[in-house]
TrEMBL record:
CDD domains: RX-CC_like
Organism: Prunus dulcis
InterPro entries recorded: Apaf_helical, Disease_R_plants, NB-ARC, P-loop_NTPase, RX-like_CC, Rx_N, WH-like_DNA-bd_sf, WHD_DRP
Keyword Nuclease: no
Keyword annotations from UniProtKB, A to Z: Nucleotide-binding, Plant defense, Repeat
Protein name from the UniProt record: PREDICTED: putative disease resistance
Pfam families to which the protein is assigned, alphabetical: NB-ARC, Rx_N, WHD_DRP
Amino acid sequence: MAEAVVSIVLEGLSNPIIQALKSLKFVGGKVQSAQTQLQIMQGYLKDADASQGRNEAIRIWVASVRDAAYDLEDVIGTYVLKVAFKRKPNVLTWFTGIFIKGATERRIAYPHIVDPQVVGLARGTEILAMHLIKEKGPRVVSIWGMGGLGKTTLAKQVYHHDKVKRHFDCLAWVCISQQCQAREILEEILTKLMSPTNEQRQEIAKLKIDQIAERLWNTDAWSSLQAGFPMNEETESRILLTSRNKEVASYADKNGFLFEPQLLNDDESWELFKKIAIGTEDTNRKIYEHKKELGTEILQYCKGLSLAITVLAGLLARKDTVDEWNTVHKNVYAYIRRGTDLGPDYKGEGYEGVSWLLELSYDNLPFYLKLCFLYLAHFPEDYEIPVSTLTKLWMAESFISSTSVEVMEDVSYMCLSELVGRCMVQVGKHGSSKKIKTGHLHDLMRDLCMSKAKEENFLHIIHYYTFGDIKQTPNGRVQRLAIYLEKTVVGHCSGSYENYAHVRSLLYFVSSYCNWNSKILRSLLRDFTLLRVLKFENMYVRKLPGEIGNLVHLRFLSVKKSIFFRGAIIYSKFGMFADSRFTCPLLRF
């Protein structure tokens, strides 16, 4: 990841305003020296990034290079903006995106988006559909099993099964996070069943009452929800649950039906792997046979777990030659051993190394895609991420490049498509043009994303469950901050932000309107002077402080669905927006 940061800084040093400094007697030498030093370090960073997990000294060095690069980027950005404002506001238009070389050099602009995880699910789909629609069937049908087994994919197959759609009047699908908020879940179900939006109405019109609760984490979560689903009433409605925990699945209904999907057998594993990694058979039969031999050996480490198979296949789909496949084959065993920590005699009997197989897919990303992937850690669990918003956030953070032919939105979409093609991001919805509209992370892939973001000091997350929560301040500098506010939080807790002075990205996530004190907002805007991204939605604020106009680095501002009774004139100080979203009903400027 440090390689990506250094690349961004090097592009910043190539700015004409910075290049002009080279002619100054006391400054020019320092600018040239910084540029040379960064170019030298960049040559080491690619290998160092890959090795830091195994060497503590390298990890510390990479972290120090990353922080130093961030410092230099702050200085460059501040200086350029000051000079540009003195010259002419239009000079700032270049600053809406810093180019990253390599981002436009992908082989596949829009890879074919497959839905590969349907191999081996036909039998389970029929069994579950039968139990849901039979007259004297159980009230609750549960799918349980380990993470990555394909429970959610199986539930989706049942959800769209023709017999299920004909039998029930309507269907509702909800995802339950580990911080289950019962009232919000029940309200979401009622909204989908009784008062849908036009878009939801079109979706529900295709389906008849079956509730599908995806990812139930513990018995407490069900206890908080079951009042909305009384078990002693005669009803034809059904509930389909998914959970990793058999105890939770049994707890929901003692007389319910439990189903555990089976691991894929060897033939099914190869079918799934081949569909993603190879597609149709290679025209060169010899190359195909070599790949099949290597793929079959790699699949032994996946143990029939569909998520591991799809992620590894997505990685190999980007490798054309047999030599590249050989390299991955060697790395897989090394990563498995690192994950299990069972020494060189480990034979792969368990599933402890699966998370490290996912890490292999991350380590094989080019640096610009690593940044894009890590940015997904901002979003809450089970959050459907709008592609239009995500791509603008990437642009504002200077992750995306453009050329005279391609606009930045297209390049951003290409990056997302590649992450989907590598099976690291899952498609939520498609738009009318069949392009991806929303996406999300599998929970195991999100665990990896969160872990890497923390390891790289890329992001810090604060989650306020109740008013007055005191949150631990992170060690070291924070570059990006995401704050989750629960519906029960009436106001935001003021706290110490001395470690947040270098924050570039501040994203708030609230489930409904949150009432804010303008003094707290003013304090945040005063402290976070380096902000490039500010997402401040679903907020109720008496007055938008004028301090927001001092955020001279800001490139993305979203106050969508927020209410302000008194605004502030801010455009006079901004000249470099990648996107601004002022769509609140009572906002006035």
